[in-house]
Amino acid sequence: MIADLLIPLILAVCACAALRRRENVYDALTDGAAKGLRLLITILPSLIILLTAVNMLRASGMLDRLSAALGPLCRGIGLPPETLPLILVRPFSGSAALAVGADLMRQYGVDSRIGRTAAVMLGSTETTFYTVSVYFSAAGISRTRYVIPAALLADLTGFAAAALFTRLFFG
Amino acid sequence: MISITWTIMVVLSIFGGLLFSTAGRIGPAAMEGAASALELGISLAGPLCLWCGVGELMARSGLREKLSRALDPLLGRLFPELRHKPDGFSALCANVTANLLGLGNAATPMGIEACRAMADGSGAATAEQCRLVVLNTASIQLLPSTVASVRAGLGCSTPLDILPCVLLTSLCSVAVGLLMCRFLERLFHDR
């Protein structure tokens, strides 16, 4: 019941809170939507270029052989081998990861285990190398010390946990 | 890195075509891939714009500040030194709040401000700066809005049903990240 009404409730609560502060609700929504459009435009080129290569790899039969070969390794830590391409691009490029993740969801179905795992992975990790470089270069830091190993280990935990919790919650 | 990956993918597909006699399918597949990417992009557009709109509304409605104040005690504990710099600390609270609400683009400028306030001028990352970055790369989200909008765009009727999974996963990765920071801090005596 709550889950069904979650999205309408979020919309209503935000609109009411903004009205109480005498904010222009409609302007806020359309300004935000315009930002969404700009976000889409930054994703689109990478979506097109990456899906071209992914589709070629799939049509050649190589993707199936690769996931069959790497399957045991992935299953060892509880990861569905199909999510491997997503895991590989996630720390380097946010738009590429979103492209690969969206393709997985479409390919295997949004409500399939692979589709859900991909969604949880995308939702609970970040573009690690980008974040580290943006934050530290802005603060004038050249020696990153132990940040990269710590962040990458956290990412790996996130990928394994995403697979685990998806399996626990959705079977 | 992405350039190398992309090139490897294309070269591998040619090898695959020769090995598994699927060579005739690769060329058309490239064109289909590009076409399907645009279709995918268009089906994502609506929900993505809607969620970005809601995000903007959350920022203007004061919900963000409320959540930010609620986080104050917890973050004060993780960042005791920054606590004494009010400007940097409020930027930090705003950064974590924006992350929680899934407003990644809003989080970055505030995170940078907090990171600058933590700098000690030595050019080496301080313990608190490392903690801030790990908190951001591990991405704690209450509302995974971008992913939810992608799911909605693909025809999912309950795009937010992954919410508990995302939350638990984020908590695990943040916990591991912070523990690693604590552990590695003792190994690195280079400051």
Brief synopsis:
The complex is a heterodimer of chains A (171) and B (191). Helix content of chain A is 80%, strand content 0%. Chain A has 171 residues and is mainly alpha-helical.
List keywords for this structure.
heterodimer; A: about 170 residues; mainly alpha; 8 helices; about 0% strand; globular; B: about 190 residues
Q: What would you say this structure looks like, in words?
A:
The complex is a heterodimer of chains A (171) and B (191). With 171 residues, chain A is mostly helical. In chain A, 80% of the residues lie in helices and 0% in strands. Chain A has helices spanning 2-20, 25-59, 62-76, 84-89, 94-108, 113-124, 128-138, 147-170. Chain B has helices spanning 2-19, 23-60, 63-78, 86-100, 104-118, 127-137, 145-153, 163-187. The model of chain B has no long low-confidence stretch (mean pLDDT 87). Chain B has 191 residues and is mainly α. Classes of the chains: A mainly alpha (171), B mainly alpha (191). The interface between A and B is large, with 100 and 106 residues.
